[in-house]
């Protein structure tokens, strides 16, 4: 084993500069049920996630945003390996998942997930403490120790163990249940936690409390978050960097501040315009985005966003943009920022942006 | 839902513990008068069957040409006598043993086998599910009476063969229920969460699936006991189940049917026993279902 840069976590292999999780060309298509005999014609599939690549850096919170159906949740399930990918690989701290160095079991110990529905993600027949203690017992921790860890974690997430440990999920409120789910995710002492719309179902005041709890826990346990949400305000509050998805593809990745200050991709810009604001001076004049996203079974040719893009040109219909660095630390998949792509204003646009 | 609580010290700190699901179901069941009456009747019938040899007023096998087909209330024959002059009360009591056994045993066996198959198919999903369930559907396509008769006929008369054929009749029915309940549970987030914790399928089935599917399967199986009793009686009636002179309600109904015009009340008694028992089991199953269905 290589000597570690940080003495804090002995599991840290590659040091702080190595991404915690590198996602490489991850692809997942869901085949549709064949009609009739299904022998004729090409096999149709929903291209839920269509070859996405990104890095999750150590200690960051990576926000993931996009419309419904853009593949956010499928990405979460792929990252958690609840759904097997068609192709692509996950590299966790330098080790490829499935290689001798990192089995699925090891990976799952270090990566956990908190689901959206706080009720259906808890076994109704199990007490809170048993639900939390289940994971550690799977990995060989004794029942007694797992329970005492469960009690510690309950206290950490703000639920008094003496009052809550022996309760069943239906006796708790939504916010309390989500705290239990967070405690369960923490029970395996993971390094990466995937939060898939984890606070979306909570009412606003409870949501704020849980968000602050998540921030505290991140500090205390040195966690890395993937924070998936459709709520842009919450993503901005939580995230260090933000990844924007459209129709199963990554269209833009940037630091949260840069992205919200100055979106590069027209889709990101449209998304941000759709954020409700209470400032009358920032009133939106034009409709931010019209229509539904195109059918992911048969996505548009070229750039997938060209059907709804306000800046689309003829070239966008035929040429597929390459996801690449447009500015230092900012990656985008748009012909506007691709030198020599044939997009008429591409050089001007890039200059505008770089000098802005 | 008011859950009475108590404290225990399983962990390190004393913990307020809620009453479990099973205790709640039992409590609601105890408050359901219809289910409790049914349960009492079943309990009495079972006790009667178990202690029949000691409770019987007369020898159920002793025939008498003089006492043939006496009406109910005859001196020494409280429920009359059958076509061979045997004491009907004694025969009904002893007959309860086999009748109840034939009602319960096939269902228990089918519950274990069919439930196992259904849970396996439901949890596995995909092509394995399709393969298993299509095979089950082949059996399911036959009307159960016909299947029971055909199997018993092919295997030959006898209690064991009747038991086997009834079990085969119930396996597909229970398997289908088990499969559909398990499929639902398998898709739930808490099973995903358990998978995410790295647990093996077997452990997930044991810890997370079983507890959530066994209730509905059990309720359905309970409702099959009455069907099993009636089918078993039917097989005996056709001469495919219990053999004379052993008393069994279905067989008694068969042999007494010739006396339907001379002693209709006596002839109807075994049928009445079957009716009471099967209705009781159905009521109990209904009570169980509603006790379990309460959303918390």
From TrEMBL, chain A:
Keyword Nucleotide-binding tagged: yes
Protein localization: Cell inner membrane; Membrane
Membrane topology classification: Peripheral membrane protein
Major localization class: membrane
CDD domains in alphabetical order: ABC_NikE_OppD_transporters (cd03257)
Enzyme nomenclature, EC number: 7.4.2.10, 7.4.2.9
InterPro entries: AAA+_ATPase, ABC_transp_ATP-bind, ABC_transporter-like_ATP-bd, ABC_transporter-like_CS, Oligopep_ABC_C, P-loop_NTPase
Record key words, sorted: ATP-binding, Cell inner membrane, Cell membrane, Hydrolase, Membrane, Nucleotide-binding, Repeat, Translocase, Transport
Pfam families cross-referenced by the UniProt entry: ABC_tran, oligo_HPY
Catalysed reaction, written as an equation: a dipeptide(out) + ATP + H2O = a dipeptide(in) + ADP + phosphate + H(+); glutathione(out) + ATP + H2O = glutathione(in) + ADP + phosphate + H(+)
Boundaries of every ABC transporter domain copy: 32-272
Molecular function in Gene Ontology: ATP binding; ATP hydrolysis activity
UniProt-listed GO biological process terms: peptide transport; transmembrane transport
SUPFAM superfamilies with a match to the protein in the record: P-loop containing nucleoside triphosphate hydrolases
Homology family: Belongs to the ABC transporter superfamily. Glutathione importer (TC 3.A.1.5.11) family.
Subunit and partners: The complex is composed of two ATP-binding proteins (DppD and DppF), two transmembrane proteins (DppB and DppC) and a solute-binding protein (DppA1-A5). Five orthologous SBPs (DppA1-A5) are present in P.aeruginosa, which increases the substrate specificity of the DppBCDF transporter. The complex is composed of two ATP-binding proteins (GsiA), two transmembrane proteins (GsiC and GsiD) and a solute-binding protein (GsiB).
Function: Part of the ABC transporter complex GsiABCD involved in glutathione import. Responsible for energy coupling to the transport system.
The name this protein goes by in its record: Glutathione import ATP-binding protein GsiA
Organism: Stutzerimonas stutzeri (Pseudomonas stutzeri)
Automatic annotation (TrEMBL), chain B:
Principal cellular location given in the protein's record: membrane
PROSITE patterns per UniProt: ABC_TM1 (PS50928)
Transmembrane segments: 34-56, 100-125, 145-171, 217-242, 262-285
Signal peptide: none
Membrane association type: Multi-pass membrane protein
Protein's GO biological process: transmembrane transport
GO cellular component term, pick one: plasma membrane
Domain ABC transmembrane type-1: 96-285
Domain of life where this protein originates: Bacteria
Keywords for the protein's UniProt record, in alphabetical order: Cell membrane, Membrane, Transmembrane, Transmembrane helix, Transport
Compartments where located: Cell membrane
Keyword Cell membrane (UniProt): yes
Family statement: Belongs to the binding-protein-dependent transport system permease family.
Name under which the protein is recorded: ABC transporter permease
Organism: Stutzerimonas stutzeri (Pseudomonas stutzeri)
